[in-house]
Amino acid sequence: MNAIQEQDLYPSRRGTEDVITERKDPVVYGAAADGPLGQDELEAYDRNGFLFYPAFFGPDDLASFSAELDRLWATAGAARDSDEVIREPDSDIVRSIFRVHETSDVYRRLAADPRIADRARQLLGSDVYVHQSRINYKPGFKGKEFYWHSDFETWHVEDGVPRMRMVSCAIWLTENTPVNGPVMVMPGSHKWFVACSGGTPDDHFKASLRRQEFGVPSDTSMEWLEKRCGIEQPVGPAGSVLFFECNVVHGSNGNITPYPRSNVFIVYNSVENTPKQAFGPARRRPHFLGSDDFTPLPRG
After folding, report:
1. Can you give the pLDDT at residue 284?
2. How many CA atoms lie within 13 Å of 17's alpha carbon, on the beta-carbon side?
3. Which pLDDT value is given to residue 69?
4. What's the confidence (pLDDT) of residue 3?
5. What are phi and psi of 221, to 5 degrees?
6. CA–CA separation, 25 and 3 (whole Å)
7. What is the number of other CB atoms lying within 10 angstroms of the CB of residue 151?
8. Which residues contact 63 (CB under 8 A, 6 or more apart)?
């Protein structure tokens, strides 16, 4: 294990109770001069930990995204032995499909699209690579919740990403309404790190992707954060885009409405923040969850 890995700035899952501390890293690494984000947008991202753009992508892009969404759903339904297809905890309904930026030409182009990749580069102040990509499906009546969590806590403990220098870009592939299980975020929660209680079982990902039990803030921690941050729902039509900082606490309710909710997530990491070894378990999660290909995305 190298020197930077030995200095764990965000230890988690080592005690019997949560511990909340202030973050030790910047939020914004680039400057307004780097474009395309203006100073007001950078300040909003620094303050809230996210930026939301309703109807960011237009009809032509959406037609391509939607057709590919349906194709992957149909393919995943028959992929019984694929580790990259995650099913709901109590059924065979597809919950998530991972590594779509490598298996789908449509989402490969989307990940490298300058309209979103340039924003990620600016926020992170460097070239970027894709640490993870996935589609989260929530079919009508059947889609289950994703409980409150910080992505960084898992990417740090289980993937070995050392610092908070990552950003997720979520694209609404269907309309996200207040009632069909939209993403909920706690603005400003990225300013603190919740070191969760408990440990990390071997191959934890095999269970956690269906229902996470470790690396989840306690009810007490969530109450502490809610009093300081509140909760917002960035709802909007298909084609809307949410950029959110890796340590923002977020989650979503189950979908018991007739209205499906599906989103694609592309996680960008700085090429100056690559993982070596996991900070918790003996080995990092597999490539489809935390990429070991750190090749920078080409600039458009």
Report:
1. 92
2. 4
3. 94
4. 42
5. -65, -40
6. 18
7. 22
8. none
The reported pLDDT for the residue numbered 205 is 59
Amino acid at 22: E
18: closest CA among 146, 144, 148? 148
Q: Are 242 and 119 in contact (CB under 8 A)?
A: no
Whole-structure pTM value: 0.94
What pLDDT is attached to residue 6? Answer: 61
Q: Which tens digit of pLDDT belongs to each residue from 238-256?
A: 999 999 999 999 999 999 9
Q: Which residues of the chain have pLDDT under 70?
A: 1-6, 77-81, 203-214
* Closest C-alpha to 234, from 44, 2, 22: 44
Which amino acid is it at 20?
I
Q: How far apart are CA 278 and CA 162, in angstroms?
A: 9
What token pair was written down for 48?
């809230």
Instruction: Kindly state the tokens that stand for 109.
Output: 């182009």
DSSP string across the chain: --HHHHS-SS--S-SSS-EEEE--S-S--S-GGG-SS-HHHHHHHHHHSEEEETT-S-HHHHHHHHHHHHHHHHHHHH-TT-TTEEE-TTSS-EEEEE-HHHH-HHHHHHHH-HHHHHHHHHHHTS-EEEEEEEEEEE-TTTBPPEEEEEHHHHHHHTT---SS-EEEEEEESS-B-TTS--EEE-TTGGGEEEE-SS---TTTHHHHTTS--SS---HHHHHHHHHHH--B---B-TT-EEEEETT-EEEE--B-SSS-EEEEEEEEEETTS---S-SSSSSPPPTTTS-S--PPPPP-
> What is the predicted pLDDT for the residue at 4?
45
